[in-house]
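Why do we care about 3D structure at all? Because function follows from shape, and shape follows, mostly, from sequence. That is the central idea of this module. The next example makes it concrete: a single protein chain, its amino acid sequence, and then its structure expressed as C-alpha cells.
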Amino acid sequence: MSKSADERGRIYLPKDVRERFGDRYRIVELPSHVALFPVDEDPLEGLRAAVGDTFVETDTDDLKTDAREAISREVQAEADARSQDGEE
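And the structure:
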C-alpha cells in the first residue's frame, strides 16, 4: 500500500485499515523507515490480551514501576555511551 502526505503532512488510512487496527497509532522512526504501530484504546488491556494470564497476579502499579525503572536504566546507559563517545 502506498500513500502520500497532503500539504499539511497528513496521511489518510483506508477505512478497512482503520477498521482492522483502529484510529490510534504510534509513529516510530527507524534508521531506514518510519513505522506505524496500532495503539489499543486501553494499552494495559491490549497487553493482557497479548500475554494471556502471565501477569494475572501482578499489580498494575508494580508493572508501571518496573517499566519506568527499565526505561531509566536504558536512558542512563545511552547517556553514558554518548558521553564516552564524546571523550574519545
